[in-house]
Amino acid sequence: MAELNKVKVALLGSGTVGTGVYKLINRQRKEMPYKVGADLVVEKVLVRDKNKKREGIDSSLLTDQWEDIILDDDIQIVVEVMGGIEPAHTYIKEALQAGKNVVTANKDLIAEYGKELLDTAEENGCDLLFEASVAGGIPILRPLKHCLAGNYLTEVMGIVNGTTNFILTKMAEEGMEFKEALALATELGYAEADPTADIEGYDAGRKMAIMASIAFNSRVTFDDVYTEGITNISSKDIQYAKEMGCAIKLLGVARNTETGIEVRVHPMLIPLDHPLAGVNDAFNAVFVHGDAVDDAMFYGRGAGEMPTASAVMGDIIDVARNIQFHCCGRIHCTCYKNLPIKKITEIESKYFMRMLVEDKPGVLAKIADTLGRNNVSIAQVVQKNKINDLAELVVITDSVLEQNFADALTSIKGMDITKEISTVIRVY
Amino acid sequence: MAELNKVKVALLGSGTVGTGVYKLINRQRKEMPYKVGADLVVEKVLVRDKNKKREGIDSSLLTDQWEDIILDDDIQIVVEVMGGIEPAHTYIKEALQAGKNVVTANKDLIAEYGKELLDTAEENGCDLLFEASVAGGIPILRPLKHCLAGNYLTEVMGIVNGTTNFILTKMAEEGMEFKEALALATELGYAEADPTADIEGYDAGRKMAIMASIAFNSRVTFDDVYTEGITNISSKDIQYAKEMGCAIKLLGVARNTETGIEVRVHPMLIPLDHPLAGVNDAFNAVFVHGDAVDDAMFYGRGAGEMPTASAVMGDIIDVARNIQFHCCGRIHCTCYKNLPIKKITEIESKYFMRMLVEDKPGVLAKIADTLGRNNVSIAQVVQKNKINDLAELVVITDSVLEQNFADALTSIKGMDITKEISTVIRVY
Predict the structure, then answer these.
(1) pLDDT digit string (tens) for B394-423?
(2) Banded model confidence at residue A2, pLDDT cuts 50, 70, 90
(3) 20 to 30 A Cα–Cα from A398, which one of A286, B38, B230, B399?
(4) Contacting residues of A for B149, CB less than 8 Å apart
């Protein structure tokens, strides 16, 4: 074989994902001449403290100077795996402006600055790929941008946060309450020390913003996403759901409707025979509906060192192939539409509402009347348990406008007979 | 916008898939300038009889002369959706030799002549894409070649035939017998007039050959695939499986082991909590295991006019993007290894064996003894039903060499006490 071209890579960050990517590049070294027609080598690794030992990483590659990378014309691919907004944002922008291709796993950044960075990539004829930013190892962005590009996609629904899915699975399977399951998730390393971004749905919201942008060809940023977490869900809700043939999942839902794009993350009851209902533990899955493909689903590990590194590596290989064929920048930003985004109050949903009310005649009639006056029709009422002389009531509504339900809820909360609205969860 | 480049496409065939592709190209017409930076137009449609009316297809595009296409230098993409080996094989080869890119949905052809055609594509700097040849609308080949390219993939398992999955689902859910379920599949259009290729596992075998080749970077042709169909499965087997916490599916299994590649299609008992167990009706799914990504699964519609057209259209868009960036031929044949392929007799499996034996003392001992002498150890025995004074026995073995099990089976068949070996099914 003739002397091979060398494609040189710089890693920004050597945390969990960075270490995984470093390992994979080395593990796949012998395959690269066949897979991309070039050698792929890590040239530099940017770290905060270059004197700190990094297990398995050749210390001669470490640098704490961004200049060592940005000024090195031989580096053609910059892999950003440091996370956070700054300095990642500045580094990526400077790299693209210097004509370097960028692969990133940074969902916070892409959900916020995606347009700016993709525009910069296009201006400079560079690739900016970010498969790992959504759903870890699961191939989803490339399938949306390429394989399903012949569809008008109308729905993307995902379980895209492994921490909360693990918690909900433990609550469903072992009857744990939220706090107990969260403690277990923390102990096992599934939840971070500060779990806010996971349990409040922000992490899932960022991923939904990225997927909705690609699926609907119109920019959606994290600010556009309505988010609601799982902290109010109790094992009792999950039990009720089960009796109704449903599971409760933290779902990201993005829909392209005639009146605009809906994007939201919240807990939801979904029928047990829906493919997403069987996605358990820390697994992720994304369900897609398009006019041609109909239903499709992508399932796998949404986080972790090697699954995330797998997605980063797929992008690196893609860029390296583009470098060999002189076609970097082959895929531009695909957000060429400017569709309106609906407010959560304009969206229709079915609701599951569990509440404690006085246990006396006429109570249900009053509640039904209040719902009715707000144009909220009832699909089902379950009254089973009594708690300290109060009746526990579960009401499932038909599909109604969020604003109408919110108005009804305010009225019901203000009624004498209402002791507590325990939970409100949307229903698929 | 400046005058756009026109990318001209010829369709070979106007059957179900061809019509779907024609519809999609027109439905997506306005999107193409944004998605690929060019107009995409169908220039010619090759048909057998150009005087026959084709609903929805502009009759001025019809031709029955291959020369009209192969000699037209403006046509840059040939989309082969006629099926069968000849003349598809010749046309594709000639198109590639003439420098035209090819998209095909033809699994028979790729499973047989994949190497030759990919080599021809490479020699001529052309694209040859065939996403639609496996699992219809489900994005699977591009994820394997690109997104998961940083993995050593060790396992690909798939439910890749919708007809048989529909039949097995009906047998499981409604207690139908095979013939009844097949008749229903035929009535609903899921099964062809001659269902042999589906029910004997040949169709699935071709798809497994293609996926194994890509996943393991080593050529596997249909001849290498051991196939066994579902005609011997009875609803009774499914009932037994259910009681053991399993479903019976027609599975394609490809494994890359240290001693070689295993590729086979046969019915299999899989645990109900395996993601593939919940794939029902005519849906398909492909489960993949890699050293980095761990487990991943791809789910969707494996056949049908529009889902298959969705996959073809994804390929067409990819080629059109390559044309715009002058990088056709960017992905070569990825089979750069030459791994040995194991014979079915060299493979280890667990077995489920249902039989009718004389109902008297010592019978089980004799069977157990015969199995033991062939190095087949027993994991479980169930004896429940009596049928006309005979005992129905179900034996589950541990993982044993296929050859040993086959030898034991021959001996057991020859024993006086054995009245019938009703079914033998492998167990996951």
Answers:
(1) 999 999 999 999 999 999 999 999 999 999
(2) low
(3) A286
(4) 35, 313-314, 317
Q: Which of A28, A131, A325 sits opposite B147 (nearest CB)?
A: A131
Degrees to nearest 5, angle at CA B312 with B307 and B315 = 135
What tokens does B168 get? 């097995």
Nearest C-alpha in B relative to A308: B293
Q: A145 in contact with B at a CB cutoff of 8 Å?
A: no
Task: Provide the pLDDT for residue A282.
Answer: 92
Token code pair at residue B378: 């027993």
For B272-377, list the strands marked E by DSSP: 283-290, 294-301, 348-358
- A31: which chain B residues are within 8 Å (Cβ-Cβ)? 217
Q: Is the pLDDT score of B3 beyond 80?
A: no
| Coil vs helix vs strand at A286 | strand
Judge whether residue A179 has pLDDT over 90: yes
Here the tokens at position B8 are: 């001209």
Task: Classify residue A147 by its DSSP letter.
Answer: I
Give the closest residue to A243 by CA, choosing from A384, A351, A389. Answer: A384
pLDDT at B171 over 90: yes
pLDDT at B51 over 90: no
Cβ neighbours of residue B161 under 8 Å, at least 6 residues apart? B198, B201, B203, B204, B207, B250, B284, B302
pLDDT of residue B155: 98
Find tokens 């044993």 and name the residue: B400
Confidence (pLDDT) at A54 = 85
CATH of A151-300, picked from 1.10.150.240, 3.30.360.10, 3.40.50.800, 3.20.20.140, is 3.30.360.10
Q: What is the dihedral of CA A216, A222, A223, A229, to 10 degrees?
A: 110
> Which segments of A339-414 are extended strands (E)?
348-358, 378-387, 390-397, 400-401
Residues of B involved in catalysis: 207
B24 touches chain A (CB under 8 A): yes
Out of 3.40.50.720, 3.30.70.260, 1.20.1300.10, 2.30.42.10, which CATH number does the structure's domain B346-427 have? 3.30.70.260
Q: pLDDT at residue B1 above 70?
A: no
